[in-house]
Design goal:
mainly alpha
Length: 135
C-alpha cells in the first residue's frame, strides 16, 4: 500500500511540474503563433483559456509541488532509503522553487533571474527524466 502511495505522490509531483512548465510553453506559442491560432476562433478561445489558467496558477503549481515532493520523499525514503537521482531532482526542484519565489518578491530583479529560472527548468527536466528512467 505504501509503495502505491509513493508512486501516486511521485506522479502528482510530475503533473504539477509539467503544469508549471506549461507556463513557458503557452507563452511561447502565444508570442510566436498567435496570428495562426486566431484563424480558428474556437481553437484560439480554448487556447486563451488554457493560457490564462496556466499563467494565473503557475506559482501555485510550484508551491504545491513542495508539499507533494516532501511527502513523496518521505514515503520513498521510508521504503527504499536514499535514491540519488531522486535526491538530485528534488534539490534542483527546490532551487527552482526558490528562484520562482525570489522572482515574485524581488523589486529590481532584472532579467538574469528569469534566465536562471528557465535554465534550471531545463536541468530539472533532465534530472526528472533521469530519475524516472533510472530511479
Amino acid at each position: 500500500m505504501l509503495k502505491e502511495i509513493g508512486g501516486l505522490l511521485g506522479n502528482i509531483v510530475l503533473i504539477l511540474f509539467l503544469l508549471a512548465l506549461l507556463n513557458y510553453v503557452v507563452k511561447y506559442i502565444n508570442r510566436n503563433y498567435r496570428k495562426q491560432l486566431m484563424k480558428n476562433e474556437a481553437g484560439y478561445q480554448l487556447f486563451t483559456k488554457v493560457m490564462r489558467f496556466t499563467v494565473k496558477n503557475h506559482k501555485y503549481f510550484g508551491l504545491t509541488v513542495i508539499i507533494f515532493l516532501l511527502l513523496h520523499f518521505a514515503v520513498q525514503m521510508n521504503l527504499y532509503g536514499i535514491n540519488i537521482t531522486g535526491a538530485i531532482a528534488a534539490v534542483i526542484m527546490l532551487v527552482q522553487i526558490g528562484l520562482g519565489y525570489y522572482g515574485t518578491r524581488a523589486k529590481n530583479k532584472g532579467k538574469t533571474w528569469l534566465k536562471a529560472h528557465r535554465l534550471i527548468a531545463v536541468l530539472l527536466s533532465i534530472s526528472v527524466l533521469t530519475h524516472l528512467a533510472f530511479g
